[in-house]
Design goal:
The strands form two sheets. Strands 1-4-3-2-5-8 form a six-stranded mixed β-sheet, with helices on both faces. The chain has a two-stranded antiparallel ribbon with strand order 6-7. The protein is α/β, with parallel strands linked by helices and about 230 residues long. It is about 35% helix and about 15% strand. Strand 3, helix 2 and strand 4 form a beta-alpha-beta unit. It has eight helices and eight strands; from the N terminus they run E-E-H-E-H-E-H-E-H-E-H-H-E-E-H-H. The N terminus is likely disordered.
Length: about 230
């Protein structure tokens, strides 16, 4: 594990309800915009934000450290870029929440979608990970989940399965609102876990650098643990 340090800024020592981990690598302006949206929409009471700087340039790190928004987050610095899995695990180890939310730093919240998702997890202890409806930059619905990857999907593509077995393979480009949908894999840009479930499966595999396969692996681990 990479060396790191934590800069605390008047945080309470008691357990938070929701811990939000945001990974930064040479994109401090994006990270601060993400933090700003979290601060704006997610209630402060019971919320903690952890920003992991994953070996960024010195000027980018200073942008985070000196920002007026820094009063709202705990800054964890890694001395090298450890990738998605290890970087987020550094952040997770600095959290206290009952729920762990991992946000890509280019995510911008448009409302408080995190609190109701935590309520849903409380009411459904069999659920291991959730994500909200996601929009692209034009505020159009975008794909927020994936089907299992395998030789059949590689040969025939997802559309064939979505057409003939819609109950098992719902259309990924469909507008989905107002009801939960069970899927095989969630996109890695926004993943919300009960912390106990996340730690029970060992969290993210730190040996895999990119997040694209990461979400599939951890979703599979959750399904197997159930």
């Amino acid at each position: 594990m990479a060396d790191y340090n934590i800069k605390d800024r008047h945080f309470k020592l008691d357990m938070a309800d929701i811990s939000i981990v945001i990974l930064n690598f040479n994109s401090g302006a994006l990270t601060l915009r993400c933090v700003e949206s979290v601060v704006k929409y997610v209630p402060e009471n019971g919320r903690e934000i952890v920003v992991v700087d994953n070996g960024s340039r010195a000027d980018d790190y200073l942008l985070l450290e000196r920002s007026p928004l820094a009063q709202h987050f705990r800054l964890v610095k890694s001395r090298q870029n450890t990738g998605f899995g290890a970087g987020n695990m550094l952040g997770a180890n600095a959290t206290t929440g009952r729920f762990l939310c991992f946000l890509n730093n280019d995510v911008v919240l448009t409302d408080d979608c995190i609190s109701p998702l935590c309520d849903y997890l409380d009411e459904h202890p069999d659920v291991g990970c959730v994500t909200p409806v996601q929009l692209d930059r034009q505020l159009q619905h975008t794909r927020m989940f994936k089907h299992n990857q395998g030789i059949r999907h590689e040969l025939f593509g997802d559309s064939l399965f979505e057409r003939f077995w819609p109950e098992r393979y719902p259309r990924r480009d469909a507008k989905i609102e107002g009801k939960p949908l069970e899927v095989m894999q969630l996109n890695g840009c926004f993943m919300l876990f009960p912390a106990a479930k996340f730690w029970s499966i060992g969290g993210f595999d730190t040996n895999i650098f990119l997040y694209h396969p990461k979400s599939g692996i951890i979703c599979t681990q959750i399904r197997l643990s159930a």
